Amino acid sequence: xxxxxxxxxxxxxxxxxxxxxxxxxxxxxxxxxxxxxxxxxxxxxxxxxxxxxxxxxxxxxxxxxxxxxxxxxxxxxxxxxxxxxxxxxxxxxxxxxxxxxxxxxxxxxxxxxxxxxxxxxxxxxxxxxxxxxxxxxxxxxxxxxxxxxxxxxxxxxxxxxxxxxxxxxxxxxxxxxxxxxxxxxxxxxxxxxxxxxxxxxxxxxxxxxxxxxxxxxxxxxxxxxxxxxxxxxxxxxxxxxxxxxxxxxxxxxxxxxxxxxxxxxxxxxxxxxxxxxxxxxxxxxxxxxxxxxxxxxxxxxxxxxxxxxxxxxxxxxxx
Length: 319
Fold this sequence. Notes:
Helix content is about 40%, strand content about 10%. It is of the alpha/beta class. The chain folds into 2 domains: about 10-185, 3-Layer(aba) Sandwich (Rossmann fold); about 190-295, no CATH class.
């Protein structure tokens, strides 16, 4: 079914995506290069008056590219929060339509609606699906695709607000559209320091002493932030739900169960932990049960409990 057109209500902005508020943003854990590029861009935005006085304008359009799960949406949301703007997350299925001419009209309606409803940061996810390279039109489908890409190109040129596009496939984006973006940031997989900080963040309210945390970060080399978050959140679910339903909560059995149920993206390869499971040295060094973050004593001797010790969770309270 084709989208409604010529809407007049600001609420219709939600037809095109989800609106994320600044208060919902999380601060990303970034490598030095990306952090520097982002801060440079923010300083430029905040110096708008000085730039205008010198016949310059701050850049307002950026493409974030990188493999899945590297934090493109989180980074864009953080930027929108730093600017004090809500972020409209537009996904391609909200725009691409099977009716001839509808996708181009949807793109036009999106930009018209954003201009009408006030300042937002527009975030176009999976951008390559909409901004796909134009080709010589040998049949109707290619002609239709070329037409909507032309519309997108024109609308981007005319748009004066903040626009961030994200793609896992930078090489698929039409070159003319790529050139219309002033900032290009590639998000790489996190290094060791960033992996420690990511694990530390998502483990809370639990935590790990420095040495076990370092070893776990080592075992997560080539893991994306999304994969690390999945692993840690699965671990916490086991600790919370396991006692209620009678799961085997011995350390090694818990780790092997989690690793078996979460797989890394094929493009990344398997981190060491996914090859060795509970036999990895990082798991042998992991205190069990996990301590709460505010109870960790870095001066204490490492625990000597065997790996098959059952976690002493309290019994479920009776009715």
